[in-house]
Amino acid sequence: MKSATFGEVFAVREFRVLFGSFALLVGGDVIKMLALSVLVYARTGSPGLSAAAYMAGWLPFILGGLFLLSLADRMAPRALMVTGELIRAVTCLLLAYAGLPVWAMLALVLVTGLFSPVFFAARAAMLPEVLPGDAFVLGRSLLNVVSASAQIVGLAVGGVFLAFAGPSGALAATAGLSAVAAVVLRAGLPYRPARGAAGAGAVRETLRVNGRLLSDGRVRGLLLAGWLPCVFLAGAEAMVVPYLGGQGQAGVVLAAAAGGMAVGEFAVGRFAAPGLRERLSFPLAVLLGVPWLFFATGPGIGWAAGLAAVAAAGLSYQLGLQRRFVDSVPEEVRGQAFGLQSAGLMTGQAAGAALVGGLGEVIAPGPAIAVAGGAGVLVALALVRVLRPAPAAVSRLEQ
Fold this sequence. Notes:
CATH topology of the largest domain: Growth Hormone, Chain: A
CATH class of the largest domain: Mainly Alpha
Distance between the termini: 6 Å
Largest sheet: none
Number of domains: 2
CATH architecture of the largest domain: Up-down Bundle
Helix content: over 70%
Number of helices: 21
CATH superfamily of the largest domain: MFS general substrate transporter like domains
Strand content: under 5%
Mean pLDDT: 86
Low-confidence stretches: none
């Protein structure tokens, strides 16, 4: 299989639209959750409620992933994505100016968040349709790079908006970004029909297809390979703040991790040939855990940032799984398959943060980070048969 290039990927108009709107989505969501957290804290003075507000947009992901994902295949993808942006815009305006009590603000974010995995699934499933062959994997890597970059930029821009316009102004700006993204999607994407036909209710169909996907050994193995190593990465990152004593230095380490992820995705996606990319999945998954082992020695902020960056670069192991995942799932449920992949990843990261956080209470943050790294290495070794593709499959890619 011939390696794709950036020029070939960006020459596709639909990808440019997906790329630009995704950057607006990620950056806007970061600003929204940061502003909501500040707004809740200003009203209540409660650190716990402020933290709950920051996480509220992600908590419903598991429920939406379990019960609503079939909508990603039963509705036209452009309409779904535009609807998602408009819902986000209206939500931000209500949070900013409706004068809602705190409980109603959190409830609004939770309810609208139930549909987030559906909107994400529609976008992810459209990517292999507009970028065939190796271009799909390179496009996926570019979206991962822009995700990491938009998170960093979103935090910086959000801080500026909060300083000059307050949380309501920042929320209004996020609503504007969502409105722009909706226009870009509506004007830039052609109409594509739904992949699947409407049948049973959305909840029943979602449960049925999730069961069908998880009962397939090949699909289940690829899903677990995409989820489990990231559980312990998230757990290690969740311990960075307490490891550094709750100081602002943690932001440097977490920003370094985001930068390492972006560099790894860019390098592997662009410069590794398709066959090499799949062979790299196993060693890169191991790399995801190894650097965290050195936190047992108590590194300072400089070494901690470097170790976090190297570990996060290992996230590019997932690029070697993407082609096989697309080939393994039936086209008519591709949207739900990508949604299940994302929902499981979000759930696993939350579970990893909780597990390693609890361990940190018992044995201190540094050793807990090292344990998380060791567990990540062991998981990668246990998944070696999935992470390491069959030689015959790799040979076909290199022909």
